[in-house]
Design a protein that fits this description.
Blueprint (H helix, E strand, L loop, with lengths): L8 H15 L6 H8 L4 H6 L3 H21 L10 H13 L1 H9 L8 H6 L4 H11 L5 H20 L7 H16 L1
Helix pairs in contact: 1-2, 1-4, 5-6, 5-9, 5-10, 8-9, 9-10
Length: 182
Amino acid sequence: MARKESITIDHILSTAFEMTRAEGADSITARHVAEKAGCSTQPIFRVYKNMSELQTAVYEKAVAFFRDYYAGFDRIGKVPFTNLGMAYIAFARKEKNLFRLLFVDVIPGRISMYELLNGSEGNVVAEINMAKETGCQDPGGMFMKMWIFIHGAACMTLSGDYDLTDEETMSLLEKAYNSFLA
C-alpha cells in the first residue's frame, strides 16, 4: 500500500503565497519553502517541475487575491476613478509585497497592469464610462492622467512616503480629477 502524501500542492502553494505576502517574492526558494512547509524539497519538485512553475502559481494566486480584494472594497466615491484609486492605494498599503509582485516588478510574460486592474468585470471600463456619463470629453485620457497619479501615490506607500488618511486621499483624488477636467 502506498503511503499517503501529507504535503499537498495546496499546502506548498499556500506556504509560498504567505511567504510572498510576508517576505516578498524573492523569499521563494526551494529550501525556504520546504522549511516553512515542514518538509524536504522533494514534495515541492514532485508537484512543480521547477521553481519558476511555483513562482507562476504564486503570481496567479496573487492576481486572484487582488481581484477578490478589489471586488470587496467599499465604493464610497462619487467621482470617477476615486474608488479605483482608493482600492489600489489601500492594497499597496496593506499588501506591500503582493503589490510589488503585481504592479512594480518587471516579470516577462505576465498580464499587463491594465488587464489586471480591468479584470473580467471591466473595472477600468466602468470607471471610464462613468467619466463619460458625467461629462468628461476624453475619458480615456482622463484614465491615463488619473492612473499616473494613483499609481504614483500607491508606490509612495512602499517607501513610507505616503501618510495621508483615507479622507485626505479621497479628497486628493477628487481634486486631481477635477483639475484634470479643466
